[in-house]
Design a protein that fits this description.
Layout lengths: L2 H5 L16 E5 L2 E5 L14 E4 L2 E4 L1 E6 L5 E7 L6 E6 L3 E3 L2 E4 L4 E10 L2 E10 L5 E10 L5 H5 L8 E7 L3 E7 L5 E9 L4 E2 L3 E8 L4 E9 L11 H16 L4 E4 L2 H18 L20 H11 L4 H13 L19 E2 L3 H5 L6 E2 L5 H16 L2 H22 L42 E2 H20 L3 H22 E2 L4 E2 L2 E2 L12 H8 L4 H11 L32 H13 L3 H17 L31 H4 L1 H10 L1 E4 L4 E4 L10 E9 L2 E8 L6 E8 L3 E4 L1
Helix pairs in contact: 5-6, 5-8, 5-17, 6-8, 8-9, 8-10, 9-10, 10-11, 10-12, 12-13, 12-14, 14-15, 14-17, 15-17
Length: about 725
């Protein structure tokens, strides 16, 4: 396959420009919806609009028109809790015989939509502000293409299943599709009151509203119509969903600041993580991102759990539980599975069922397994939950065995990867574009590839496992793991350090030759602690230099490298989660001011993007005075590990660590950058205790004041 073909494997296609860069997103469980500011689902632009369920698009068109014309948009938003979309619409000037018979603004339509239990509920509330009765014809164009998410992303299929005949009642239409996997997928649209006509492409309505009066129309779109819950109607569904939302948020720590932009960013980020988690069949497991990755991803789930650990350890427990339950038990080259390996992703669509894509249950990531052990150790450090770790211990043992046996195939002490299946990912680190690992002259590195950050993850995993075995009383395993970690650290420094670059090599290729390229990957080596202290400071200075820091954040690749392209996915873009891990690494080595610089860059980014929601990534173009960021056109938004970034950034700047066993909350040399003078943490839970704190930036150290405390808990400011 030529280089272009290789680069484009599982590429998210952009055949045209997005129809609107301000799309609206809702998600609940395995269902999500992407639509425009009107609330319409249109087959335009990148084609990402739709209501999706279990990896299939169940609604590909849903467009409202009044008097055969698109209504006027006055405003629209998704509420700050991410639960309900609301749009205010009105009529355009309606003419007859070239005379305006109904002036614009006479009719007000409040359109709202939310998702709950595989159903999209919608309400149209119409108000007549005119002086005469209004006879209103309106239509909703409908369509269901039942496209697999990978088809929507641009993968072409030689064959598809077949559309079955639609079924109609007075109030509803049932659209059906039989896939090549012999699964029948159905979409049922119910309307109350009933339309005057229903066809396979349109719902037609007529209503009359007296002056000063209003009327209501309710719709439901059920992607799993066999489930009886879809028939409960809009008001009851709204009440049930709001109750669940309140319960989900009841124990969450509230973080706010005297910097209002930071408060809004934090609020949206917390709501995004909740939305990506709520309703999922995998308890307390945040899906990766909407629209392309709304499913379980091992790496993404672990990183999000690490970002949120000091605030919500329940996420870490949920991620560990699910990944342990799906840990590989056999060798399967097509799925990249070996015993002990941790999942990369799962898919439940038609193409995954048929093996047209290998991602039904896919293990093609080199880092999920050591990250799993890292998270287990961090969870124990934070919660002291020995009982759960004893339950997890067999899975930790299997993961450690995978690292040594399958991860290090050639026995050189480094963990490396190469593709085993025919359809899997070529690159299996977090930068999984096929052109993301290269030499200084731009040549793609030949496998097997040992990434620098993966050696850091393995080092941290060994130390995490040592702490676990120490707490559980196995001193022999503890000592052995500490020794192997120290040996890895020594080998790593010898093999990866590039003195002329003031950083570590991106990777070692199949001939053990270093890829002497300056990238953001060594920032993860700071996070894991594998880096030598003196060299860590050099890496930190490199990553905040003009070659890397765009003004919005740290780029993935330095701007003088051969394959640098600020518009690419991984070779010069800015990723919030990458920046959060880098900042945490800088803080680990005493560079809290650099961590604060990254925090402020991403704070400015949150203020420049809609909804204060950090996307999966942005382009790495230099920040320009008076201009906003250059957005990446097919980035997921929301993306869980992007949403979690702000919480790891705050933790890094404030030096927060938690020790539930010792009932202690530690602030080690807390730092707040200019622009964040004050911060409040309200009802931060630590085991059975909770505390509310006020932090204030002064001329010296940050002052930490306890406002309220419940239960036994010590605040340790160092």
């Amino acid at each position: 396959m030529d280089e272009l073909g290789v680069t484009q494997q599982y590429y998210i296609a952009a055949g045209s420009s997005p129809s609107d860069d301000r799309t609206r997103v809702l998600k609940y469980g395995t269902t999500f919806a992407v639509f425009n500011r009107y609330g319409d689902i249109e087959p335009l632009g990148l084609g990402e609009h739709g209501i999706f369920y279990l990896g299939t698009r169940h609604v590909s068109e849903l467009v409202l028109s009044l008097w055969n014309t698109r209504p006027l948009l006055m405003s629209s938003a998704v509420k700050s809790n991410n639960f309900v979309f609301i749009a205010d619409l009105s009529n355009v000037d309606v003419t007859k015989d070239q005379q305006i018979v109904i002036p614009r603004g006479t009719l007000h339509i409040a359109r709202s939509r939310f998702l709950w239990h595989d159903v999209a509920y919608e309400e149209l509330r119409m108000f007549n502000y005119g002086l005469a009765p209004l006879d209103i014809p309106f239509r909703i164009a409908i369509g269901a293409d039942f496209a697999d998410i990978f088809e929507v992303r641009g993968v072409r299929r030689e064959r598809r299943g077949r559309r079955l005949d639609d079924d109609f009642t007075k109030h509803s239409i049932l659209m059906r599709y039989e896939g090549l996997d012999h699964v029948e997928r159905q979409t049922r649209i119910d309307c109350y009151p009933a339309p005057v006509e229903i066809t396979s492409s349109e719902l037609s309505f007529e209503t009359s509203i007296a002056p000063g009066n209003s009327t209501l129309f309710h719709f439901s779109v059920a992607c799993n119509p066999h489930q009886k819950r879809h028939a409960i109607g809009y008001p009851r569904a709204m009440a049930g969903a709001e109750t669940e939302l309140r319960a989900c948020s009841a124990n969450a720590c509230a973080i706010s600041s005297s910097n209002d932009r930071l408060s809004r960013w934090i609020k949206r980020s917390m709501a995004d993580v909740e939305m990506m988690t709520m309703g999922n069949p995998e308890t307390n497991y945040p899906y990766a991102g909407v629209p392309w990755f709304s499913t379980v991803f091992g790496r993404d789930g672990i990183v999000t759990a690490l970002e949120m650990l000091w605030l919500a350890p329940s996420i870490a427990k949920g991620v560990l539980q699910y990944l342990a339950s799906t840990q590989a038990t056999e060798v399967n080259p097509e799925a990249e599975a070996q015993p002990g390996k941790i999942l990369h992703e799962t898919r439940r669509g038609e193409m995954a069922n048929l093996g047209e894509v290998p991602f039904g249950r896919y293990y093609g990531s080199i880092d999920s397994t050591p990250l799993f052990v890292m998270l287990a150790g961090a969870y124990l450090d934070c919660t002291g939950d020995r009982e759960f770790l004893r339950h997890l211990l067999p899975h930790i043992d299997l993961a450690l065995e995978w690292i040594d046996r399958y991860g290090d195939v050639d026995g050189d002490g480094f963990v490396e990867y190469q593709r085993h299946g025919r359809k899997g990912l070529v690159q299996q680190g977090w930068k999984d574009s096929n052109d993301s690992v290269f030499h200084a002259d731009g040549r793609i590195a030949a496998p097997p590839i040992a990434l620098c950050e993966v050696q850091g993850y393995v080092y941290a995993a060994k130390l995490a496992a040592a702490r676990i075995f120490s707490v559980l009383g196995d001193d022999e395993r503890t000592a052995a793991l500490e020794i192997t970690a120290a040996e890895l650290q020594h080998r790593f420094e010898q093999a990866f350090w590039c003195d002329e670059l003031s950083t570590y090599a991106l990777a070692l290729d199949g001939e053990k030759k270093p890829c002497r390229v300056r990238t953001s990957n060594p920032g993860h080596c700071l996070y894991t602690g594998i880096a030598d202290a003196k060299r860590a400071r050099l890496v930190a200075h490199t990553l905040v230099s003009a070659d890397f820091f765009s003004g919005w954040g740290v780029r993935t690749v330095g701007c003088h490298e051969a394959r640098y392209n600020p518009l690419s996915y991984h070779n010069g873009s800015v990723w919030p989660h990458d920046n959060a891990l880098i900042a945490a690494g800088m803080a680990r080595y005493g560079q809290r001011e650099f961590a604060g610089q990254i925090l402020m860059g991403l704070l400015d980014l949150s203020g420049a993007v809609e909804l204060h929601r950090l996307p999966e990534l942005i382009c790495g173009v230099d920040r320009r005075s008076g201009q906003g960021p250059t957005l990446y056109p097919v980035a997921c938004s929301p993306q869980s590990w992007a949403a979690g970034a702000v919480f790891m950034l705050l933790q890094s700047c404030l030096g927060i660590s938690t020790d539930c066993g010792q009932k202690k909350l530690v602030f080690e040399r807390p730092y707040l950058p200019d622009g964040i003078p004050q911060l409040w943490l309200r009802k931060l839970q630590l085991g059975d205790a909770s505390v509310s704190l006020f932090l204030e930036r002064g001329t010296g150290a940050v002052r930490v004041e306890t406002i309220e405390k419940q239960g036994e808990l010590m605040i340790d400011v160092r």
